[in-house]
Amino acid sequence: MPITRRTLTAAAVAALLVPLAACGSGDGDGGSSDASGKVEGEITFQTWNLRANYKDYFEDLIADFEKEYPGTEVKWVDQPAEGYADKISADAAGGTLPDVVNVSPDLVAPLAKAGLALDLDKDAAKYREEYLEGAWASHQIPGMEGTYAFPWYLNTGPLFYNKSLFEKAGLDPEKPPRTYDELFDTALELAEQSDGEVATLAQVPTIEDFGRYGVQLMNEKGDAFTFNDAKGVDMLTKYKELYDAGALDRQALTATPESTGKKFLTGAVAMNPGSAFDLGNFKKQAPNLYENIGITDQITSTGHVNMYVMGVMVNANTSKKPAAIAFAHYVTDAEHQMSFAKKVAIFPSTAGSLDDPYFTKEDDTDETRVRVASAKALKDAVNYTPVLFSEQMKTALRNQVAKALQGKESPKEALDNAVNECNQLLRQQG
Question: What is the pLDDT of residue 35?
Answer without folding.
Answer: 65
